[in-house]
Amino acid sequence: MKCKARLTTSGDRVVISRDPRHNHTGNVSIARARKAVGKMKNKKTDLTVAPSSSQAAVMSQLPDDTLMALPRRATVSKSIRRHRKKVTDAANGDTPRPAILKDLLFDIPESFADIVVFDSGPGDNRLILISCHELVDGLARASMWLADGTFKVVPSMFFQLYTIHF
């Protein structure tokens, strides 16, 4: 039978309850690993970075026994992404995200029409510019632009995501 007792921490110190029904000690490393995963989730929420970055920021400061007690990296990443989605959805009033696009003839949903500055229309060479008019004005005034493109992290029906920063 699995014990339903909880370990309580105070800072980095584990506070063990003196409940007479429990005749075993908890695993401090596992408790610290769970707390570290919680810190990773909070860091992901605060910094809006990739799960691997939030993991690295927390893991670099953990002792070896806690690192050994952490779940697999993929499991932690999935947990962090799930937490991020939950926080983001709650911040958006639990508005569901649009469905994944399946063909090139899609229409921009009305709820996102205000951020679409340009849409060349359906077709194989469709170009969609997503921004706001304040940022487009900022690009016009900027003396330097930085650009980046990616092929790996875009929905499969798209070819490339290209970003311009100023």
Please supply descriptive tags for the structure shown above.
single chain; 166 residues; alpha+beta; 2 domains; two-stranded antiparallel sheet; 5 helices; 38% helix; elongated
Summarize the structure.
The protein is α+β, with helices and mostly antiparallel strands. The chain has helices spanning 28-47, 51-59, 64-69, 73-91, 133-141; strands at residues 8-10, 13-15, 116-119, 128-130, 146-150, 161-165. It has two domains: 8-91, no CATH class; 110-165, no CATH class.
Oligomer: single chain
> What's the helical proportion of residues?
25-40%
Give the overall shape, derived from the CA principal axes. elongated
Q: What do the pLDDT scores average to? A: 78
Series of secondary-structure elements, N-terminal to C-terminal? EEHHHHEEHEE
Strand order of the largest sheet: 1-2
The total beta strand count reads 6
Strand content: 5-15%
Structural class: alpha+beta
Cα-atom Rg, whole angstroms?
Answer: 23 Å
- The tally of domains stands at 2
The rounded distance between the terminal residues' Cα atoms is: 59 Å
SS element count, helices: 5
